[in-house]
Amino acid sequence: MSEKKVKDAKMEIQLDEETAQGVYSNLAVVNHTDAEFTLDFIFVQPQAPRAKVRSRVITSPKHIKRLILALEDNLRKYEQSFGQVSLAAPRLDSELEKIH
What we know:
Shape: extended
Number of strands: 3
Number of helices: 4
Order of helices and strands: HHEEEHH
Strand order of the largest sheet: 1-2-3
C-alpha cells in the first residue's frame, strides 16, 4: 500500500456508553519492559489506606512516544488558553493561618 493511501485511510472509532462515561484518576503509575509500557490509572481517596486501579493500558514503546507528544501538544494548547498549570502543592500551613 502506498504512503498516500495509508494517510487517506478512514477509521471508524466506536465508543460504548459505559466507556464514554470515563473514570476519574488522580494518580498514574507507569512501568515498562523492553517490549511494552503499562499505565495504571488509580483513584486515591484522601486519607484512605487503599487505592483502586480504575484502568490499565498496555501499549508499545512507539505508541507511548506518540502519546507523550500528543499530551505535550495538548497541554501547550491548554496553557495558551487557560494559563500555566502549576505542579506546586498548595501550602496547607498558609491555608490554616487564614482560618485562625
